[in-house]
Amino acid sequence: MIKIGVLGAGGRMGQAIIAEVQAAADTWLAGGVERAQHPLVGREIGEGQVVGANAAPLARKADVLIDFSTPDALDEHLRAAEEARTAILVGTTGLLPAHHARLDRAAQQIPVLQAANTSLGVTLLAALVEQAARALDAKWDIEIAELHHRHKVDAPSGTALYLGEAAARGRGAPLESLRLPAHCGHSGVRRAGGIGFASLRGGSAAGEHKVIFATEGERLEFAHVAEGRELFAHGAVTAARWLAGQKPGRYQMADMLGLQAQASLVRQAGNLTGP
Predict the structure, then answer these.
(1) Residue 245, helix vs strand vs coil
(2) Is residue 6 a contact partner of residue 66, using CB atoms and an 8 Å limit?
(3) What is the dihedral of CA 30, 39, 118, 208, to 10 degrees?
(4) Candidates 152, 210, 224, 234; catalytic one
């Protein structure tokens, strides 16, 4: 039985993860944490567990923490996980370079899996996008379009940037050097080899992403549509099961699915030459 603690228990994703943990036969809800002012603090969330405002006690009870809270809470949550030697999965979006540096430091002591998107389908999509970008040259323009609900504050979404990074890896350059400015007004001629983004916000859309490879006379499109938050919760809990048995280090969803190893083998095979 894997004991899972949920950080950001009052949010939409936190609630979905709690339901997923409670429904599974091999996981047990160790508890939940929210910011001190949240109305859920002090209330039961099932199995006699009360939502607290301090991550440290929960980290000591859990095998894995799943964090879908806010970037400004990350340092406190990582510190609690480090002190308890508890693995942590971070699904919080909007992270800055300083947050990633902090995750790297934590990964020296505990297993850390950071994911812009915990969907198993999106993880596979990113691998396909990277492969396509590696195979197709700069004459193929890359555009990434995403649609989310009206309450989402970061744009482009973390998933869109994740897909952009996959495309940039395929092109052998950092995303910062390939990312195009927003197409607005008189934007001029599109730079060859660049990666563009378009963000839409409205309604209750859980998340839709499309990666478009377009060249003269043809177009290739990869798409993923999330029909509810349950799929992200399922992916997060699936990854938490896997993470509980790992050594300290920095992991991705692709590691859990074995996609990193497969990609390495594909690249090695592509570099082989015959006798």
Answers:
(1) coil
(2) yes
(3) 160
(4) 152
Q: Which CATH superfamily includes the segment(s) 2-118+230-261? A: NAD(P)-binding Rossmann-like Domain (3.40.50.720)
DSSP code of residue 44: B
Active-site residue flag, 148? yes
- Domain spanning 120-225, CATH class: alpha beta
- Residue 155 CA: distances (Å) to CA of 32, 86, 160, 251: 28, 31, 9, 24
Check if 247 is active-site. Answer: no
* Structural contact between residues 144 and 195, judged by C-beta atoms closer than 8 angstroms: yes
Q: What are the tens digits of pLDDT across the range 74-133? A: 999 999 999 999 999 999 988 999 999 999 999 999 999 999 889 999 999 999 999 999
Amino acid at 163: L
CB 42 within 8 A of CB 10: no
Helix, strand, or coil here: 238?
helix
* Radius of gyration over every alpha carbon of the chain, rounded to an integer in angstroms: 20
Alpha-carbon torsion 50, 107, 164, 136, what sign?
A: negative
pTM, rounded to two decimals: 0.81
Q: Residue 109 corresponds to which tokens in the numbers above? A: 């002591």
> Which residues have C-beta within 8 Å of that of residue 186, sequence separation ≥ 6?
none
Alpha-carbon span 63 to 244, nearest angstrom: 6
229-249 pLDDT, tens per residue? 899 999 999 999 999 999 999
Which is the catalytic residue, given 3, 99, 148, 224? 148
Q: 36-55: per-residue pLDDT in tens?
A: 989 988 888 877 788 999 99
Pair 136, 219: CB distance under 8 Å: no
Per-domain boundaries in the chain: 2-118+230-261, 120-225
* Angle at the Cα of 19 from the Cα atoms of 252 and 247, rounded to 5 degrees: 30
